[in-house]
Amino acid sequence: MSNIETRMSNWLKENRARGARLLQILVQENSTRGNESGAQAIIIEKCRQLGLTLDIWEIGGEELKKHPAFCCDRNDFEGNPNLVAVLKGAGGGKSIILNGHIDVVPVGDELNWNQDPFSGHIECGRLYGRGATDMKGGTVAMLLAIESIIATGTKLNGDIIFQSVIEEESGGAGTLAAVLRGYKADGAIIPEPTNMKIFPKQQGSMWFRITVKGKAAHGGTRYEGISAIEKSQLVFERLQQLEKDRNAKITDPLYDQIPIPIPINIGKITSGQWPSSVPDTAIIEGRMGVAPEETIEHAKRDMENCLKDLCREDAWLSEHPLKIEWFGGRWLPGSLNDDHMLIKELSESYLEIKGETPIIEASPWGTDGGILSTVGGTPVVVFGPGTTEIAHDANEYIILEEMFAASEIIARTLIRWCGVQKE
Amino acid sequence: MSNIETRMSNWLKENRARGARLLQILVQENSTRGNESGAQAIIIEKCRQLGLTLDIWEIGGEELKKHPAFCCDRNDFEGNPNLVAVLKGAGGGKSIILNGHIDVVPVGDELNWNQDPFSGHIECGRLYGRGATDMKGGTVAMLLAIESIIATGTKLNGDIIFQSVIEEESGGAGTLAAVLRGYKADGAIIPEPTNMKIFPKQQGSMWFRITVKGKAAHGGTRYEGISAIEKSQLVFERLQQLEKDRNAKITDPLYDQIPIPIPINIGKITSGQWPSSVPDTAIIEGRMGVAPEETIEHAKRDMENCLKDLCREDAWLSEHPLKIEWFGGRWLPGSLNDDHMLIKELSESYLEIKGETPIIEASPWGTDGGILSTVGGTPVVVFGPGTTEIAHDANEYIILEEMFAASEIIARTLIRWCGVQKE
Fold first, then answer.
1. Which of residues 31 through 70 in chain A touch B, CB cutoff 8 A?
2. Residues A348 and A306 in one domain
3. Cα distance from A259 to chain B (closest Cα, Å)?
4. Between chains, do A263 and B219 touch, taking CB under 8 Å as contact?
5. What is the pLDDT of residue B423?
6. Tell me, what's the ipTM?
7. Distance between CA atoms of B170 and B161, rounded to whole angstroms?
8. What helix, strand, coil percent values describe chain A, rounded to 5?
9. Which of B330, B345, B366 is the last residue of a domain?
């Protein structure tokens, strides 16, 4: 271990309490969509203290909104800025983007939480709260890595471009805005919760909304109506079959350990207004996974054809066809060869810190990496602490030990990737 | 045809336009739950003009709310009164309650309506709008019948007790309040939309709410969660089977022509908050039919046992059992022998006016008749214009011709039942 690596490693060990505290106050700031400013302010202040060059702006404008990859149903970004904070290198090294999102998903049914969803409570080495895993823990890991470089007086050749963006959970408008603002690099790490696995390939995904029409009637003579809920059951069955068919075609060994490589998730259904009426409309919303080498358009056609088949075969639906909309979130798929230098250097750092070779898999979900790579032309690897089992769930938490390990692995990768000036 | 009957018949023919106009302004007053006052005011004014003895009051109070048949989730009845208007007889005749409800169900998806749901538009002999059939048309038929008696100078022996109540669509608190206020009679007609069939037996019904628990997860790793929507599909299947089993036991010939005598209607489902999360909770609401001779308690046990079986057989549900609540609306079943004098006199009047024998069936839905008969001890027959196919549906309408026919049949039944003083 080099002198620099030792110093950074020591600094990270000595500053764990501060790291945990930073994550705690970040989790305590509810940053669900439209409420990102409080948590973002904490990160801005941290970057200011680190002496980074700050670029804080509210996203929007014609170029963003007319971009083909823009996919967003939010009109107002006012007061909830994006942040890019740059640690400028001396030159001659490779640059890297460290990208994290500040937005978190809603808490779900609060009754399922054992504590306030924004408690930031620490117990048995775990820090609890919405966003702890997805992905404020990853963001803190990046900030600690940067601080360990600065605090130890390490001078890099390449630039570190730290990004804290909004809107990842709803389709990546924040990262797209950063790309369009000109932020590109020779590589990027996104510390989404991969459970410390390295993901060179990322699934794309997009949201869909299916509207099912029925025919209202009094519940006492329900046979005179057509229940939109009953017709929705047919839709569920078809989508389950489509998911099976699509996944049967996935042969990439990176997906070997993943039960459903590209899932179709039904996230929401709303139907009916009155218990004793037959419901005349059902709205189904969900998320469709897109394979790393597939296009968004191909996946859309798969679902549209599947639902057209259903409509053809059902007498009612053939006259009252299902309506499908692609709305809200959309994440482009992304793919990096697993012999890319960034994967290699990250894997070596992992081996040194953890004492074992990392697991390399394909991501089961979309990230902003699709935009960074496809639109921004920046090679992306996704690697971070926390597990997806608990992201988006009640009692979300992160194991702090993992966050610190990720931080050290990222720090070591940074000095390799960007290069260090001779002392 | 007696002199009186001829005069009443002529009066009704001559006053059809006024009757249609009264229904029109009633339909134009949206009287969904909590908004009953405007339509009720029109009826109050009509009864005042007819010289009836008015009893207008806001329901509520301990006696009502603690009554075992009270079943209501509404706290505030202020400003939306009940009305009872009495045409006092000379004495010595049988009394009769004419009961109609002023509340209407919500309009559903407005896009399914060809016109404003409260238009009162008349075209090709049909009057359109929410409540036209269920049951402002029936109420106007009763008011015209009463007016034809008054306008022709006919003096009855028995009392006519006209009731315009709130809350029928949500469990009958309005009629229960009228019963507890002391209104009972030797018989009652409720002109709910029976499509001019005579219903001596009425199905009871009640609302249920089933809460299904799942386990949230990120949609990209949906196999790590348990979808409350998928578990709801199991509930749907079981309830469909339960409906089949319960209806297989119905042997009453009055139900011979009814496809599903006592339906279980799923009226509503709400699940999930986010397209790309696995939903952790689903709320299912619906209406369960109760056979005329069955008790509410027996039907409840049927469903509770059915869902308990499901929970026993499903690994997840056995640890996260379904929660079932009986909430909101509940209508007691009711049953009258079909040789009851009220059925006979109504049938004779029907035969005279329509020139054919009426169809006698059991009602496929609950009405306030259950409360009138079970709590109030008043024999009830349900008979009225309009069809349940279009009650609670978009583009609800009533055929005005049927409303006028019902009015004349009711008027003729009234003079037979109550008796007429010699001229």
1. none
2. no
3. 7
4. yes
5. 60
6. 0.77
7. 23
8. 40, 20, 40
9. B330
Same domain, B235 and B87: no
Question: Are A403 and A262 contained in the same domain?
Answer: no
- A283 in B contact zone (CB under 8 Å): no
Residue B273 sits at the chain A interface (C-beta within 8 Å): yes
Chains A & B: contacts with CB separation below 8 Å:
242
Asked if residue A41 and residue A127 are part of one domain, the reply reads yes
Q: What is the pLDDT of residues A25-74, one digit of tens each?
A: 999 999 999 999 999 999 999 999 999 999 999 999 999 999 988 988 89
Q: Is the pLDDT assigned to residue A242 strictly greater than 90?
A: yes
Residues of A with a catalytic annotation lie at: 103, 168
Q: What is the pTM of this model?
A: 0.77
A174 with A319, same domain: the answer is no
How many domains does one find in chain A? Answer: 2
- List, in sequence order, every beta strand (DSSP E) within A258-352: 264-271, 281-290, 323-331, 334-335
With residue A205 as reference, give the H or E element that holds it.
Answer: strand A204-213
User: Measured between beta carbons, which residues in chain A are less than 8 angstroms from residue B270?
Assistant: 269-271
Q: Vertex A167, ends A165 and A172: CA angle to 5°?
A: 90
Residues of the domain holding B210 = 204-330
| A423 inside domain | no
Q: Which of A331, A353, A381 is the last residue of a domain?
A: A331
pLDDT at B332: 87
Provide φ and ψ at B272, rounded to 5°: 85, 155
* Nearest C-alpha in B relative to A279: B267
Confidence tier at B262 by pLDDT (50, 70, 90): very high
* Mean pLDDT confidence for A323-341: 88
The answer to whether A241 contacts chain B (CB < 8 Å) is no
Give catalytic residue positions of B.
103, 168
How far apart are the CA of A419 and the nearest CA of chain B, in angstroms? Answer: 36
Does any domain span residue A157?
A: yes
Same domain (yes/no): B102, B194: yes
Output the pLDDT for position A203. Answer: 87
Tell me the nearest-neighbour CA distance from A233 into chain B, angstroms: 7
Is A287 an interface residue toward B (CB < 8 Å)?
A: yes
What is the CATH classification number for the domain harbouring A170?
3.40.630.10
Could you report the per-residue pLDDT of B130-149, keeping only the tens digit for each?
A: 999 999 999 999 999 999 99
Q: Which of A235, A181, A191 lies closest to A213, judged by CA?
A: A235
Q: Would you call A337 an interface residue with chain B, using a CB distance cutoff of 8 Å?
A: no
* Shared domain check, A116 and A31: yes
Tell me, what CATH number does B305's domain have? 3.30.70.360
- Answer yes or no: do B307 and B407 share one domain: no
Q: Is residue A135 part of a domain?
A: yes
Q: State the number of CA atoms in the 13 A half-sphere of B134 facing the CB.
A: 27
**pLDDT-derived band of residue A423, with 50, 70 and 90 as boundaries?**
low
Does residue B423 lie within any of the structural domains?
no
Q: How far is A285 from chain B (nearest CA, A)?
A: 5
B394 touches chain A (CB under 8 A): yes
